[in-house]
Write a structure and sequence with these properties.
heterotrimer, A mainly alpha, B mainly alpha, C alpha/beta, A: mainly alpha, 13 helices, about 0% strand, B: mainly alpha, MetI-like fold, 12 helices, about 70% helix, globular
C-alpha cells in the first residue's frame, strides 16, 4: 500500500514536469503559435502585437503556464485555433474511438498473448509451440505500418473482405486492432513462454516437487506467479507502444481518434489542440507505468522493497 | 599503467584476439559482405541526392509513364504516380534512411554514454536526477516526441533526427549506468587503494573495454529502429519533407493509389523488412560474438 | 488426501532389519541422441532408521544425482538405467508417478543447497509449509496452519505466528534454511536427504543447522543422508560415510574408522588435504583432475591420479569388504597407515 502511494505520487511529479516541458516547447516563441491564425508576413506588426497581448502571449512563460494549468483544472482546455471549437469537445469526440481501438488491441495482446505463451511453454517442442514461435517471429520482422498497408492491400483492395478505413461498423475495427496488436502480441507470447520455461526448471520448482506438491499447483500457481513478473514489465512497455502506434494506425485506417486529431493539429499548426492531446497521451503513459509497477509489486513482493528500480 | 593489470589479474573484458580481428574473421564473412552491400547501396543513395547532375535519376518526372508496373522498359521496378523511377526512388530513400539511422544511433549513443556515466559515477544525487530525466523522457515515445518537436520547429530532417535520438538514449543510458555501477564495486576500489594509481585512469580503461561491445551491438539495433522510425514519421508527414526522398514518403503517396498499383507500396515495404531483418540479425550475431554474458536486451 | 501410511509401506519400527532407504547397484545415465552416458554406476548404500550416512565427494562425483534419483526428481533426459531404490523395503524405481509424488515430502524428503533460490520468492513461507501439509493430508487449513506454526517454532524461527506471513527474502540465509527444513519435515518423513544444505552459509549458522538436524533426527527417528564435499562437516555428523568418486562409491566405512584409517587412496588424499587446515581447499593436493562422465578410464577411475597404482589397476575394481568397511581398490592402504 505504501509502495502504491509513493509510486503514484512520483508519477504525479513526473506528469507535472512533462506538462512543463511540453508547454515550454510548444509556446517557445509567440510567433509560431499565432502563425496559424494570422499570416505574420502580411499582417501589420502592430496588429500582430495587439493580438499577442490580448491572448496573453507576451506574458512570461511561467504566467502563461499558470493560466493554462488553472484552465485545465477547471475544465477549460482552450480553443482550437483552426476550427474554433473548444478543445474539450474535440477530445470528447475522439477519445472514445481511440479508447476502443487501443482497448481492443490491448485485449488481443494480453488476452491471446498470455495464454498462448503459457501453452507454448507447457507444450514445449511440439508443433503447436513451433507454429506459435514462427508466427511471432514473422510478425515481429515487419514494421507495423508496413503490415497495415499490406493488410489493406490484400484484404481490402484485392479480396474485399474487410473495409479499408472509417469507423462506421465493427468490421472497421478488426484490421486496425489486429495490426496494432500484432507486435505487442508477438513479444508477449515470446516473453511469457521464455519466462515460464525458465521458472519451470528453477530451483524452487524442484523444491516444490520434492515436497510432493501436485504438478498442476506447481505450474499454475507458483511458476505462473513468478513468470508473470517479466510479462508485466513488458506490458508497461507495450502500453506505451500501443499508444504511440495508435497514432500511426489511426491515420492509416482513417480512424477518427485522438491520433488522427493530433497529427492533423500538428500539420495545421493548431497548437492548442496539439498541447492538450500530447499531454493527455503522455499522462496516460506515465499513469500506465505507475499502475504497472504497482501491479508488479502485488505479484512479486521483492519489488516493494526495492521500489522497482535495479 | 603496466602495474595495474598484474595486480588485478587480466583486465576486465580481455579477449583472446583483438576486437578488430574478431570482427573480421571467417565466421563473420557473410555479415561483413551484407553490411558492405547495405553501406554501398546507402552511399549511392546519398551520392545521387548530393551530386546535382545525378538528381534527375530519382527526381525526373515523366507524366506519360506514371504508375508503370515493374519490369517495364527503362524502369526495372516500375514508376510512381509522377512517373519517377521507383528503383532510384528506393535507392535514394535508402540513402536517406541509412544516413539518418546512423546519425541518430551515434547521437543516442553519445548522449546515453554521457548521461549514463554521469549518473553512475557521481553518486546518488546525480543518479536521482538522471533517473527523473529518464522517466520524463519515458512519457514521450518517438512519435509523440516527434509531434512536439514538429510543433516547435516544424516537420523536417532535424525533427526526425532529434526525435529519434532523444527516444533511444534513455535505454542506453540505463545500461551504461548499470555497467558503471557494477564496475565501481570491483577492481577499481582495490587497485586504487593499494597503489594510489589515479582512480580515473583505471576505471576509464576498464569501462571502455566493458562498454565497447555493448555499444557496438546497441548501435546496430538503434540503426534498425531509427530506419523504421524515420519511415514511419515521414509517412505521417512529420519527418523529412519532399523533395527529399524517403521510403516513408514513397509509402505514403503510394497509398493513395493503392487500388491501382501495388508496387509503390509493397516494394518499399519489402525493402524495409529486409533491411530490418538484416540489421537485427547482425546485431544478434555481434552480440553472440562480443557479449556472451548477455547484458544487452534487444528490446 | 492420502491416508497416514500408504498401505504398501509398512509402519516404521525400531527393527533395523529393514533399511529406511536402500540403494542397490544404482546406475544413472544421460540419454543422448545416439548413446547414453553413464553418470553414476553401481552405487549401493543402505541407511538404517535413525542413522546418518554422509555422502562425500567433489562436484561431479554424482552424489547429487544419486539423491535426485532416490526422489524421482532426475532432470529431463537423465534416467535410472539400472538398480533399485527401496524405501522401507518398497521399490521406488518404476513406481507409478502419482504414488511417488505422494511419498515425496511425506515419507522421503530432500533439502537443497541454496535456500534463497530454493524457496518460491512470491509465496509466504507459512503458505509454503501449509501447502505441503495439504498436499498429503486431509486436514483443514486451520489445522495445517497450527502444525506449521509449531514446526517453525521448533526449528527456531522466533515469533513464528507472525513470521508465517513473511516472504523468503525477508529472512537471512540461515533462517531460510530452517524454513526449508521445517517444510521438509512437517510430515515426519522416514528419510531426509540433505544436499549440501550448509554450503552457502557461514560457519556459525552452519553449526546451528547441524545441531537442529541432529536433534530432529533423534526426535523423529529419521534416517538421514547428508551430502557434502566438506569432510570436516561430515565428521561432526555422520555415523557412516560413503565416499564417491567419478560416479561410483570408492569407500564406505564407519565415520571414526574412515578418518583414522582411510583405505582408498582418494579418501586418504581428502583427509590429508583437510588436515592441512586449508578449509574448503580439498583438492589442491591430489594431482590431476577428475575425468568427466563419458571420459572415464576403463579401469580404475582414480588410477590417473593415484600414487599407489600397480599392475592390475587397468581392470575396473569391484567394491570389496575389508575389515569393517568396503573399498574399491586392489591396493588399499592398510591399518598401519603405511604407504
Amino acid at each position: 500500500m505504501r509502495f502504491a502511494l509513493t509510486r503514484l505520487g512520483y508519477a504525479i511529479i513526473v506528469i507535472f514536469l512533462v506538462s512543463v516541458v511540453t508547454f515550454a516547447a510548444l509556446h517557445a516563441s509567440p510567433g509560431s503559435v499565432i502563425s496559424s491564425v494570422l499570416n505574420v508576413t502580411t499582417t501589420p506588426h502592430s496588429v500582430v502585437v495587439a493580438y499577442e497581448r490580448s491572448h496573453g502571449l507576451l506574458d512570461p512563460l511561467p504566467v502563461q503556464y499558470w493560466h493554462f494549468i488553472s484552465g485545465v483544472l477547471t475544465g477549460n482546455l482552450g480553443t482550437s485555433l483552426v476550427s474554433n471549437l473548444p478543445v474539450a469537445q474535440i477530445v470528447r469526440n475522439s477519445i472514445w474511438y481511440t479508447a476502443l481501438l487501443a482497448g481492443s488491441a490491448f485485449l488481443l495482446t494480453f488476452g491471446l498473448g498470455i495464454p498462448l505463451g503459457v501453452l507454448a511453454a507447457v507444450t514445449e517442442g511440439s508443433w503447436f509451440d513451433r507454429v506459435i514461435r514462427t508466427v511471432a517471429s514473422f510478425v515481429l520482422a515487419i514494421p507495423n505500418f508496413v503490415l497495415a498497408i499490406a493488410a489493406v492491400l490484400i484484404l481490402a483492395v484485392h479480396l474485399h473482405v474487410l473495409p479499408a478505413g472509417g469507423a462506421g461498423s465493427f468490421s472497421d475495427l478488426i484490421m486496425p486492432a489486429v495490426v496494432l496488436a500484432a507486435e505487442p502480441w508477438s513479444l508477449t507470447v515470446r516473453v511469457m513462454r521464455t519466462s515460464f520455461l525458465e521458472h519451470m526448471s528453477a530451483d524452487f520448482t524442484r523444491t516444490l516437487r520434492a515436497r510432493g506438491v501436485p504438478e498442476w499447483r506447481v505450474q499454475w500457481l507458483h511458476v505462473l506467479r513468478n513468470a508473470a513478473g517479466p510479462v508485466i514489465s513488458l506490458g508497461i512497455l507495450q502500453i506505451r507502444n500501443l499508444l504511440a502506434y495508435t497514432l500511426l494506425i489511426e491515420v492509416i485506417f482513417t480512424w477518427p481518434g485522438l491520433g488522427t486529431q493530433l497529427v492533423n493539429s500538428v500539420l495545421q499548426r493548431d497548437y492548442n489542440v496539439t498541447l492538450v492531446l500530447t499531454l493527455l497521451l503522455a499522462t496516460v503513459i506515465v499513469l500506465a507505468a505507475a499502475l504497472g509497477d504497482i501491479l508488479l509489486s502485488l505479484v512479486d513482493p521483492r519489488v516493494r522493497v526495492n521500489g522497482g528500480n535495479p | 599503467m603496466a602495474i595495474a593489470p598484474a595486480l588485478t589479474g587480466q583486465p576486465v573484458g580481455h579477449r583472446e584476439r583483438g576486437l578488430l580481428r574478431t570482427l573480421i574473421s571467417r565466421a563473420n564473412i557473410a555479415w561483413v559482405i551484407g553490411s558492405l552491400i547495405l553501406l554501398s547501396a546507402g552511399t549511392v543513395g546519398v551520392i545521387i541526392q548530393v551530386v546535382p547532375s545525378l538528381r534527375h535519376l530519382y527526381l525526373n518526372q515523366d507524366l506519360e509513364a506514371t504508375l508503370k508496373p515493374p519490369l517495364s522498359p527503362n524502369h526495372l521496378l516500375g514508376t510512381d504516380n509522377l512517373g519517377r523511377d521507383l528503383g532510384w526512388q528506393l535507392i535514394a530513400g535508402l540513402g536517406t534512411s541509412l544516413a539518418i539511422g546512423i546519425g541518430v544511433a551515434l547521437l543516442s549513443v553519445v548522449l546515453g554514454l554521457i548521461v549514463g556515466i554521469f549518473g553512475g559515477f557521481f553518486g546518488r544525487a546525480a543518479d536521482a536526477v538522471a533517473n527523473v530525466v529518464v522517466d520524463v523522457t519515458w512519457a514521450f515515445p518517438a512519435i509523440l516526441l516527434a509531434v512536439v518537436l514538429a510543433g516547435w520547429i516544424g516537420p523536417s530532417l532535424t525533427t526526425v533526427i532529434l526525435a529519434l535520438a532523444l527516444t533511444n538514449w534513455a535505454g542506453f543510458a540505463r545500461i551504461v549506468r548499470g555497467e558503471v555501477l557494477s564496475l565501481r564495486e570491483r577492481d577499481f576500489v582495490n587497485a586504487a587503494r593499494v597503489l594510489g594509481v589515479p582512480k580515473v585512469l583505471i576505471s576509464v580503461r576498464h569501462l571502455a573495454s566493458n562498454l565497447v561491445p555493448v555499444t557496438i551491438v546497441l548501435t546496430v539495433y538503434f540503426i534498425a529502429t531509427s530506419i523504421i522510425g524515420e519511415a514511419g514519421l515521414t509517412f505521417l508527414g512529420l519527418g523529412v519533407q519532399p523533395p527529399m526522398p524517403s521510403l516513408g514518403e514513397t509509402l505514403s503517396t503510394g497509398r493513395e493509389y493503392i487500388s491501382e498499383s501495388w508496387w509503390p507500396v509493397i516494394l518499399p515495404g519489402v525493402l524495409l523488412v529486409i533491411i530490418v531483418l538484416f540489421l537485427n540479425g547482425l546485431g544478434d550475431h555481434l552480440r553472440g560474438q562480443l557479449d556472451p554474458r548477455g547484458r544487452v536486451q534487444r528490446r | 488426501m492420502t491416508s497416514d501410511l500408504l498401505p504398501d509401506v509398512p509402519a516404521s519400527s525400531p527393527d533395523t532389519a529393514v533399511s529406511a532407504l536402500e540403494i542397490s547397484s544404482l546406475q544413472v545415465s544421460l540419454q543422448g541422441r545416439q548413446a547414453s552416458t553413464s553418470l553414476v554406476t553401481d552405487v549401493s548404500l543402505a541407511v538404517a532408521p535413525g542413522e546418518i550416512v554422509g555422502l562425500v565427494g567433489e562436484s561431479g562425483s554424482g552424489k547429487s544425482l544419486t539423491a535426485l534419483a532416490c526422489m524421482g526428481l532426475l532432470p529431463r533426459g537423465v534416467v535410472i538405467a539400472a538398480g533399485d531404490v527401496r524405501l522401507s523395503g518398497v521399490s521406488l524405481v518404476g513406481m507409478e508417478r502419482k504414488k511417488l509424488r505422494a511419498l515425496r515430502g511425506s515419507a522421503i524428503s530432500m533439502i537443497f543447497q541454496d535456500p534463497l533460490t530454493s524457496l518460491d520468492p512470491c509465496a509466504r513461507i507459512g503458505s509454503q509449509i501449509v501447502e505441503t501439509i495439504l498436499a498429503h493430508r486431509d486436514v483443514t487449513a486451520a489445522e495445517a496452519r497450527k502444525d506449521a506454526v509449531e514446526l517453525l517454532d521448533r526449528v527456531g524461527i522466533p515469533r513464528a505466528t507472525e513470521r508465517m506471513r513473511a516472504y523468503p527474502h525477508e529472512f537471512s540465509g540461515g533462517m531460510r534454511q530452517r524454513v526449508m527444513i521445517a517444510a521438509a519435515l512437517v510430515l515426519r518423513p522416514r528419510v531426509l536427504i540433505a544436499d549440501e544444505p550448509t554450503t552457502a552459509l557461514d560457519v556459525t549458522t552452519q553449526a546451528g543447522i547441524v545441531e537442529l538436524v541432529l536433534e530432529l533426527r533423534r526426535e523423529l527417528g529419521m534416517a538421514v543422508v547428508w551430502i557434502s564435499h566438506d569432510l570436516g562437516l561430515i565428521g561432526q555428523l555422520a555415523d557412516r560415510v560413503a565416499v564417491m568418486y567419478a560416479g561410483e562409491v570408492v569407500e564406505m566405512a564407519g565415520m571414526r574408522d574412515l578418518f583414522v584409517t582411510p583405505r582408498h587412496p582418494y579418501t586418504h588424499g581428502l583427509i590429508d588435504s583437510a588436515r592441512r587446515g586449508e578449509y574448503g581447499e580439498l583438492f589442491g593436493f591430489i594431482r590431476g583432475n577428475v575425468a568427466e562422465p563419458g571420459h572415464w578410464p576403463a579401469g580404475c577411475r582414480f588410477a590417473p591420479r593415484c600414487e599407489r597404482v600397480v599392475a592390475g589397476c587397468e581392470q575396473h575394481p569391484e567394491l570389496r569388504p575389508l575389515d569393517q568397511a568396503s573399498v574399491r581398490c586392489i591396493n588399499p592402504m592398510t591399518r598401519d597407515g603405511a604407504q
